[in-house]
Predict the structure of Integrase core domain containing protein.
Amino acid sequence: MGPSYSRSTPQLGAAVDPLARVQKLEAQMATLLHHIQPWMQKSIAESEARVERRMEDMMDRKVQDVNNHLDAFELRVLERPAPAIDLSALQADIASLRSDVEAILAALRLSPGCPADR
């Protein structure tokens, strides 16, 4: 069995030994970090690239879905028959509307207290 150290009376070697062990551990950790750091940076860069590709793929799929919906909508609109416009009926409606507006304006001009007279 090794030497037994008393807690109340540390020996000189016992006080130096833990400090040396801590320093050795710190040196080992620094060396380990030095070797692991490039791998970690590479791993992070690869992970970021994968996430970026996934985001681009997802956005491409969403844009393609929107384009497909727009194409389908455009096809439905193009397949509808164009509404027939009866120009003579439209001209008659406009003439009737014009005569109604003229009649209203004439009535307003003839009535006493008309704001147009002021």
In short: Helices lie at 12-79, 87-110.
